[in-house]
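[INFO] parsing input record for DsrE family protein
[DEBUG] input buffer:
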Amino acid sequence: MKHSITYITVLLVLILGTAQLKAQTSTSDQNDYVVLSKNIKQLKPILMTATSLAEEDGENYGEFQVVFCGKTVADIRDNTDFQALLKQAAQQQMKVYVCGLSLQAFEVNPEELPQHLEVVENGIFYGFQLKKQGFISLTI
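[DEBUG] output buffer:
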């Protein structure tokens, strides 16, 4: 009898502890993604990856966001290839951002940026905020 109570108690602790752990790690049924990149040439493979993840995740596919930081922001102006990829990203409901701190550091006027591109004040901080919200993140 004494051993039975011990076994039942251990079993309940394991079951309840595992359920609580699962609730803490899973914030939603959706898989949300964010990529922080220092190279605008990565947008094409990022789009391909988003397409593959959407197919794989099915109904569990959530948001996909990309944030460009660093010197690469200076290459965005008048880049027709990048603008075409931005249009494709918009069609895939992908949000593409550029780091405001990087724009300032490399003296890029936000008004010269193409349509479908939004500015966040601090790209790295923004990425951490999304990570805290449960986004799966990758830095390339």
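[INFO] The longest strand covers residues 61-68.
[INFO] shutting down worker
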